[in-house]
Each structure stands twice: as structure tokens, then as C-alpha cells.
Specification:
The complex is a heterodimer of chains A (about 325) and B (about 450). Chain A contains twelve helices and twelve strands. Chain A has about 325 residues and is an alpha/beta fold. In chain A, the strands form two sheets. A six-stranded parallel beta sheet of chain A has the order 2-1-3-4-5-11, sandwiched between helices. Chain A has a six-stranded mixed beta sheet with strand order 7-6-8-9-10-12, with helices on both faces. In chain A, helix 2 (about 45-60) packs parallel to helix 10, helix 3 (about 75-90) packs parallel to helix 4 (about 100-115) and helix 5 runs parallel beside helix 6 (about 175-190). The longest helix of chain A is centred in the middle third of the chain and has 17 residues, at about 175-190. Chain A is globular and about 60 Å long. Chain B has about 450 residues and is α/β, with parallel strands linked by helices. In chain B, helix 11 (about 305-315) packs across helix 12 (about 320-345). The relative contact order of chain B is 0.13. The chains are: A alpha/beta (about 325), B alpha/beta (about 450).
Chain lengths: ~325, ~450
């Protein structure tokens, strides 16, 4: 396993095998009938669905009931409210994806203070420490995802080209890492390329920011968007433009997979493994509830997906057959 | 505003009495540091602790509020009568950039004036890279960190944690790059950062910074004594006594890696016989000889073996890896036991990537210290692993930056101006830099946003 990034506190990554459950762990968990709540940034994405799918299956294997699955719709306010509500409901553990930094830090810390075990996904608000305020962070190797995107987009960029980077304006560990890795790789391997940056604060702003960027820099030869949902909005804008440019993004959602298979507008996708990440988060939660030590940061490597491996990558990531339109686009069926 | 206020106040006083501008600075410095130390506090507390009169305290607090350094908008709990106004430092008045330069990683962050870390990022970086590459990456990351901040607060200083001893005087800002690393000899890192960011630069050893981080936000928060031990290629210790970091005569304390130890029939320094170079070397040998199936498999697949890999293999049950780490832990434990008997700390905090990846070094150190420690010294002693990781260095850098920014000798020169960037010595230093030929400057990073 190759992990490029460091954890939120500079930790070295531990592989998901570190939280393998033994038969006796499952038996012990079943005997205690734990209750767990899940707090997500959104439920409206393929990534979130797969993550939940992995979690639910493994928690179910361990006789653990998921009592709440909360959609925060990317709102720090909604997340604080949800976490405060969970405080009074007292689940044994909460698996949460913090949607912001400072705004949600105390609400998460309060759970731990109340004796509720906390496992984080993808982001750690600054100031929260593993072992003190939360047990473990489970995330993708986001730095590695940014590198994959840069490396995959590079062949499409002619000498001296300009490339757009559409980032996320929130202070969020995962997207920060992707953005920094993309620019670092370009500087190191394509110093001839100029990077033009912009950022969206909400997903519905991403189309507008893409338009602004393309107007200010009409010669962009490629675009990196830090995850797939805003990348699809950017793709819509590009479709209305006279000149098409390749897009690199993170996460192999269904629509992105179709675009990748068709060869436009997506050229490279740095894919997370949300199902396996969900499984790892569930196993970490079970071990934490059983009082077993868990590492501060568990990271899953990213997968570089191009048109040539989109079908098998889709199967691997989503645990289901690739859509008919993908299979048709790559010529596997008529 | 500050100038006008000073003159108005001075004009209302009797002829022959000194102007406020000449006399206010010491009391402003004293009050501001009392507010920082006891945040929030009340006017009554400030009068009691400073032994200044009510009118003087009121006058100075007005000045500090006009400078935007304190806030009195909140009220505290009433203890009979009117609820007192709370006096707080406006920690968001300015920002500090902080960075940790480690042997294999670079960390950056943004902190407020109270030394609270607001954001952080860590990435791999080999410190053996040319200093120009380091300066470029550091500048890029510092700028990126600053641009992520939505607050309009200006930048007031940069505090750096470096893997070497940094001699220095309290209250000074750096005017040249100390030779903390051999590769930096003659490389103007401090000068380049001052030119790029236009703020004072401070620098301390990473062990000092991490110790400060653990003292203020980690395992030793609220304690008055601690022994901090960082295990890496070098092994160093930080000493906290009576709630303060002990820095010795030249800032060169805790160099325990230079202490001679014996391992089997070998004699060498603790660095050589227990540091990460030893762990890596022995790990490679175990892989090549097949003693470690996990590491041998990794080598067979063409993977690089690092000291972290050895530590992770040990944690996952690899016997050869566990043996290597136990050897390291026992040797470190022997030295730490001696220090423990000398210093009688409340807590010993072990840190560094290798310690944080596995439990074996911690267990070996515990065994050695509890075995060799005086019963009184070990009775209530806790030996733990850091929970802060590399964040300790950034938090420590933030605390050190805030302390040096408000150090009386430095503060008295800028408090009347309202910003450390107007400190006369710093203004002169910057002017001197501007008038001398500029060294090669790192390529500026792309700016966020479309113009």
C-alpha cells in the first residue's frame, strides 16, 4: 500500500488491515448489542451511498444497530444541531464526517466528553486530537488522489499550457490535501504549466465559478475539480463552450464514469474506495467500542481510473456491474 | 487614533509632567501581559495584580482597546452589585504563521495571537533537499495557509520549528538565519521569509516547540513538570520545570542523543544505537535475511523499507521488527530513567513517528524507567505517548510566537504603534534588507481567485 499524504497531525497512515475483526471481536460485539449513529456531510452522492453500504453491512455483521443516519447537507449549523441532539440520545458511538473546521470542533469534542466513542471520516477539525477527542480518522489518501489527478491530466496539457484548479473554499482536510498535491505535482513535474485557481463555497456555485474562470482564462487546456459533484456542474458549463477541455476529478460517480468511458469531458478520475472505507470505519468503530487500540489515521489508497480501466474500476469501487452506457461506450456491448 | 489619544491625554495633565507617550508603554506592556496570562480577567483584578491606580488602568485599557488589542464587551458573573466587565485579548487582531521542519516532513499552520492553532497541514519533505527547494515549498505552503483564512486580520509574525539547536535571546526577532542545520550554512532563509512576508521571524528547535505544544495543549496541560522525549533520527528531550520550558545557557538542552550507551558488545551514542537509522538498518537486515517475513515480503515486491515500516510490522506482530524496537526502547529507557531520577517529572511524553506507530517502544521505556526509577520518583509518574503528533510542533511554534511577540522587551517598542510591524528595530531591519541586493526569491505561488 502506498500512501502519499500525512495525516491531519502529521501521522503516518496505517493500512485498513490494522482494524481487521477477528471472530472473537464479532462475537463480543454481538453480545453487547451496540447502538451507533452516523452523521454525514450529505447523503446525496454515490460516494455517501457506498460508504454507508460498507458501514451498514459490517456493523450488521457485528450485531450493531445503526439508529440514526443524518444528512447535514454540508451545513456546519445543521451538523452542530445534529451532534447536540445525539448527545441526549446517547448512542454508544458516532461515526461523523465533520463538514467544517472550527465551527464544528466543539460539538464533536462534546460527544467524547459525554462518553460517546467518536470515529471521524475524511476530516478532523483543527485542535481535536486522536485518543483525546476522537478515536481514529478513516479517510482516503487525499494527497495521493491529487497527485493521481495531476499526473493523469498532464499528458493532455501542451507545453506552456494553463490549467484550471477549481477548489473548495471551506477549510476541509480532504480537499485541501487534493489541491495541494495537485499543485505540488505540477510544479515538480510540469513547471511549464501555469495553474489558475478559483474556489466554490457551495456546490451550486461551482458552475458559476467555472464560468468566471473560463472567462478570465479562455486558454485553459484542462481543469481539475476537487470532487465529482461540482465537476459535473463544471462539465455542464464546458458543454456549452465552443472548445472542449479535459477534466480531472476525484470519485468515480456514475455520470463521471459515463463521461470517462465516452472519452469526454473526463480524462482521469482519482477514485476513492468508499465501500471499503465504510467497512474500515465500521470495523474501527467496533474495535473502539470493545476498547481495543486503534491507529490515529487509517488511509485507503486511491485508484487511477481512465477510459482503459473504467469498467473493472467501476466494479471494484462500487461492487456492482458498470452501467450499460459505460459498457457501450467502451465497446464491450452494443 | 492612537497618536491623537496620546496627545489629548497628555495635554490635559499639568505642565512639567511627562507625556503619556513617554510613560505609558511599560504599564501597557504589563497590563497586556496580565490580560494574556489570565484571559479573561476584570479591571479589579488588573488593578490588584499590577498595583496601578484605577485611573491609570482605565486610561491604559482605553488605549489598548483603541489599538484593537483588547475587548471589554462581555460581562462576568456578579458577586453582589453590578456584573464586572471582562477584559480579553483580541486574539484575532493579528495572525501568526507557524511551520515545523522535520527530517522527513514539513508542517504549516495559522494561529491566532493567543497561540491557538486555527488550521494545519503536513506533508512529506526530505530535509536533505537543497535549501532553495525547502524555502520555495515553505513559502508556497505558508502563503496557501494564509490565503485560506477568511479573517481580515493581518499577519504579525512567523514562528518556525527546526530540527537543530537555535541559540537566541528572548524578545528578539531574527535578523539572520541561525546555522540550525549544516545545509543552511550561508542560506538566507530568514531574510527571504522577511522579504516575502514582511513580518518578524522566530525560530526554535523542534524539541523545544513540541515540548511547548504538549505543555499548553497536550499531555502536560496544567502540569508544572514534564520530560518530553522525541525519537527520530536524532533523540532529544525537552524539560519543563515549574511550568516553564528550561532552555539552558545557549538553548542547547536535552541533547540526550549524544549520551553514550551500550547495546550488546557495541558502544555508541543513543542516536546511533536507538534512533531511526538503527531501526531502518536492522529492519533491512531482517528483511534480507528472511528473519522478518513481513519486511522480506515488502522487499521482495520491490518496496522501499523505512523505519516506519519496521515499526508498523512490529505492531502487526512481526517478531524481528518487535525485537528491533524493543532494543531501541530499552536503550532510550535507560537514559530516560536517569533523567527521571534527576528531574522527578509528573509525566514523560514520548513522541515521534516511530513511537506513534507502535506500542513497543513505549512498553520498553516504561519497563526501563519503572525498573530503574527511585520509588518516590516513579510513584505517581505517568509515561505516555503523545496524542498530538506533529501538531505539537505547530502548537508549540504558535505559543512561542505569541510569547515572543508579547515579550516585554519587544512589546514595549511596538505597543504604542499598535502593530509589531511598526517596531522601530523591525522597520529598520526591513529597510536594510530592501537596500541590499535581493537573493534569489522563490517563485510566488498562484493566487487564489480569478482577478
Amino acid at each position: 500500500m502506498t500512501i502519499s499524504g500525512l495525516g491531519p497531525h502529521g501521522e503516518r497512515a496505517a493500512p485498513p488491515e490494522r482494524v481487521t475483526l477477528l471472530p472473537e471481536d464479532r462475537a463480543a460485539a454481538k453480545a453487547r448489542s451496540f447502538r451507533v449513529a452516523v452523521v454525514m456531510h450529505t447523503l446525496d452522492s454515490d460516494w455517501a451511498s457506498q460508504q454507508l453500504s460498507g458501514m451498514m453491512g459490517r456493523l450488521g455483521d457485528c450485531g450493531t444497530a445503526v439508529t440514526h443516519v443524518i444528512d447535514c447537507a454540508f451545513s456546519p449549523f445543521a451538523q452542530v444541531e445534529a451532534l447536540d441532539r445525539l448527545l441526549s440520545l446517547k448512542p454508544d458511538a458516532v461515526i461523523s464526517l465533520p463538514v467544517a473546521n472550527e465551527e464544528v470542533a466543539f460539538a464533536h469534542a462534546r460527544l467524547t466528553d459525554a462518553g460517546i466513542k467518536l470515529v471521524l471520516l475524511d476530516n478532523v477539525p483543527t485542535g481535536l486530537l486522536p485518543g483525546k477527542h476522537y478515536g481514529t480518522l478513516v479517510s482516503a489518501d487525499n494527497f495521493g488522489l491529487g497527485k493521481i489527478a495531476a499526473e493523469g491530466l498532464s499528458p493532455y496539457l501542451p507545453q506552456g499550457a494553463e490549467v484550471g484548479l477549481l477548489g473548495y473554499a471551506a477549510d476541509f482536510f480532504a480537499t485541501n490535501e487534493r489541491e495541494l498535491a495537485f499543485t505540488k505535482w505540477m510544479r515538480a513535474h510540469r513547471p511549464d504549466v501555469s495553474i489558475r485557481q478559483d474556489a466554490f463555497g457551495r456546490i451550486d456555485e461551482s458552475a458559476r465559478r467555472t464560468e468566471v474562470m473560463l472567462t478570465a482564462h479562455p486558454n485553459l487546456a484542462g481543469l481539475f475539480v476537487v470532487w465529482d459533484t461540482p465537476a459535473l456542474k463544471a462539465a455542464e458549463i464546458l458543454r456549452g463552450m465552443p472548445r472542449q477541455i479535459p477534466i480531472a476529478t476525484v470519485d468515480l460517480g456514475e455520470e463521471v464514469a459515463i463521461g470517462l468511458a465516452q472519452g469526454t469531458p473526463f480524462a482521469i478520475v482519482a477514485a476513492q474506495q468508499p465501500y471499503l472505507q465504510g467497512v474500515a470505519a465500521a470495523q474501527t468503530t467496533i474495535l473502539t467500542l470493545l476498547g481495543r487500540p486503534t491507529p490515529a489515521w487509517i488511509a485507503l489508497p486511491g485508484i487511477a481510473v481512465t477510459r482503459s480501466n473504467v469498467v473493472e474500476s467501476y466494479q471494484r469501487i462500487w461492487r456492482k456491474p458498470a452501467p450499460q452506457s459505460v459498457l457501450q461506450a467502451v465497446g464491450l456491448i452494443r | 487614533m492612537q497618536q491623537g489619544l496620546t496627545e489629548t491625554t497628555a495635554a490635559s495633565r499639568g505642565k512639567g509632567r511627562p507625556r503619556v507617550a513617554e510613560t505609558a508603554a511599560p504599564s501597557l506592556v504589563e497590563l497586556l501581559n496580565l490580560i494574556r496570562a489570565d484571559d479573561p480577567t476584570t479591571r479589579q483584578e488588573l488593578e490588584r495584580k499590577s498595583e496601578l491606580g484605577r485611573a491609570v488602568v482605565a486610561d491604559r485599557l482605553t488605549m489598548l482597546a483603541d489599538l484593537g488589542l483588547i475587548d471589554e464587551s462581555e460581562t462576568g458573573l456578579a458577586t453582589g452589585g453590578r456584573a464586572p466587565r471582562l477584559v480579553r485579548l483580541v486574539a484575532r487582531r493579528g495572525r501568526l504563521l507557524v511551520a515545523t521542519l522535520d527530517q522527513t516532513a514539513l508542517g504549516v499552520g495559522v494561529a491566532d495571537l493567543a497561540g491557538n492553532l486555527l488550521t494545519e497541514h503536513h506533508e512529506e519533505f526530505e530535509l536533505t533537499a537543497p535549501p532553495q527547494a525547502l524555502a520555495e515549498r515553505l513559502t508556497t505552503l505558508l502563503r496557501w495557509s494564509l490565503e485560506r483564512q477568511t479573517s481580515p486580520a493581518g499577519l504579525w509574525g512567523i514562528s518556525l520549528s527546526v530540527p537543530g539547536t537555535v541559540p537566541g535571546t528572548e524578545g528578539d526577532f531574527l535578523t539572520k538565519t541561525p546555522p540550525a542545520l549544516p545545509a543552511w550554512e550561508g542560506f538566507p532563509l530568514v531574510e527571504m521569509l522577511t522579504r516575502s512576508f514582511g513580518v518578524p521571524i522566530w525560530m526554535r528547535s523542534s524539541v523545544d516547540m513540541m515540548t511547548m505544544g504538549e505543555l499548553h495543549a497536550g499531555a502536560a496541560k496544567g502540569l508544572s513538570s514534564m520530560l518530553f522525549v522525541k525519537v527520530g533520527r536524532r533523540i532529544g528531550a525537552g524539560i519543563v520545570s515549574e511550568g516553564r520550558l528550561y532552555r539552558g545557557a545557549l538553548g542547547a538542552t536535552g541533547l540526550i542523543g549524544a549520551i553514550p550507551v551500550n547495546s550488546g558488545d557495541r558502544t555508541g551514542t543513543l542516536d546511533a544505537l536507538a534512533g531511526s537509522d538503527m531501526i531502518l538498518r536492522e529492519g533491512r537486515l531482517a528483511a534480507e535475511s528472511g528473519r522478518s517475513p513481513v519486511l522480506a515480503d515488502q522487499l521482495h515486491r520491490g518496496g522501499e523499507i523505512t523505519a516506519i515500516d519496521v515499526a508498523q510490522a512490529a505492531q502487526m506482530g512481526d517478531e524481528a521488527g518487535a525485537e528491533i524496537l524493543t532494543t531501541s526502547g530499552r536503550l532510550i529507557g535507560q537514559v530516560v530513567a536517569t533523567l527521571t531520577n534527576t528531574l522527578n517529572p509528573e509525566v514523560i511524553v514520548l513522541s515521534g513517528s516511530i513511537v506513534q506507530t507502535n506500542d513497543i517502544i513505549l512498553a520498553a521505556v516504561r519497563e526501563a524507567v519503572y525498573g530503574a526509577g527511585h520509588p518516590l520518583v516513579t510513584r505517581d509518574l505517568r509515561i505516555i505517548r503523545s496524542q498530538m503528533g506533529s501538531s505539537a510542533g505547530l502548537v508549540g511554534a504558535a505559543r512561542v510566537g505569541a510569547e515572543l511577540l508579547f515579550a516585554p522587551t519587544f512589546l514595549k517598542e511596538w505597543v504604542m504603534q499598535g502593530s509589531p510591524l511598526l517596531h522601530p528595530g523591525f522597520v529598520a531591519f526591513r529597510a536594510g534588507l530592501e537596500s541590499t541586493p535581493s537573493p534569489p526569491v522563490p517563485v510566488p505561488p498562484p493566487r487564489r481567485g480569478v482577478p
